[in-house]
Amino acid sequence: DQQVKQNSPSLSVQEGRISILNCDYTNSMFDYFLWYKKYPAEGPTFLISISSIKDKNEDGRFTVFLNKSAKHLSLHIVPSQPGDSAVYFCAATPGNAGNMLTFGGGTRLMVKP
Amino acid sequence: DAGVIQSPRHEVTEMGQEVTLRCKPISGHDYLFWYRQTMMRGLELLIYFNNNVPIDDSGMPEDRFSAKMPNASFSTLKIQPSEPRDSAVYFCASRPAQTGTIYFGEGSWLTVV
Prior knowledge:
The structure holds two protein chains of two kinds. In chain A, 0% of the residues lie in helices and 53% in strands. By secondary structure, chain A is mainly β. Chain B is mainly β. The relative contact order of chain B is 0.34. Chain B is built from no helices and eleven strands. Helices cover 0% and strands 55% of the residues of chain B. The chains are: A mainly beta, B mainly beta. Chains A and B meet through β4, β5 and β10 of A and β5, β9 and β10 of B.
């Protein structure tokens, strides 16, 4: 049973526009959430995280929103750039220790010039 | 700073052979993780260590898999005997005690024929 789901396997966006990647979770014990970006033939790279005590965290072009009541988080990239083209994974863990990360299946983002 | 270093990057082996994957975590990181990525199951945690001690190995698929961490700068994941269904990308990752952010290596691509 998937506890973290990314229902869109792929997303295509025009350069300069906003990219919105979504993630849903079912385990109410999750209270720390992370987004990772992965290029082909490389390991996942940490992008941004959010604790359940917040509903928004921003880092440059990247913003993560958390809706605890809906068990939903999203990653916004504004403006999108071709270099953002990658697979994006959301991950969740109970407690901010981050030891038991559960990953979603990933969303492949393609930013077209 | 060097990131998490894994070897070999690619391995092709015959069914029944022993496979050993190696990892050097980031210096100073107290936690080390082994993940496996497959098309069917995505990214899943196999085992993790804290200060060289295995803490949770509930993700290890079966007794053919074993992991060791003899010191703070080295870990191995061994599969004996290997089977075609073990073909996957195996990631090693580490994190410091102070944060929940996990840093991944570039992965070891294993193909068992």
